[in-house]
Amino acid sequence: MALFRIGFVLFPRLTQLDLTGPYEILSRMRDAETLLVAKTLDPVPSERGLSIVPTATFADCPPLDLVCVPGGVGVNAVLGDPEILGFLRRRPSMRATSPRCAPDRWRSAPRACCGAGAPPAIGSRAKPCETSARSRPASG
Fold this sequence. Notes:
By secondary structure, this protein is α/β, with parallel strands linked by helices. The protein has helices at 16-26, 75-78, 82-89, 104-114, 130-135; strands at residues 4-9, 32-38, 44-45, 51-52, 56-57, 66-68, 95-97. Helix 3 crosses helix 4 (104-114). The model is unreliable at 100-107 and 110-140 (pLDDT under 50).
């Protein structure tokens, strides 16, 4: 059986919990490989200073089945980063996801750069927090 490859995009000032929470869950999937992908293999600082060490670069990353883009105060700086968007653009067959409460423009960035024929970003039609509200059971 082929490995299901999951890539987590790293960028300066990401929210560490947006990265490590999903990483902990997805890395436990059977027959899955998780990669931390960045511009270089140099440690990437989170918004609170925790450094995260990439395991692959955008240039040498193998094909991915799923890419996760965490949120954080550094996200606005990467919205127009040609290297990060180029990395996403070169992977039109993968699914993309971002935190549930990420800004709409970041959520749609993978969809916009991958072209009309690419699969949409997971939850890309949802407004911020709409997905999490739908997934919660009704109280009472």
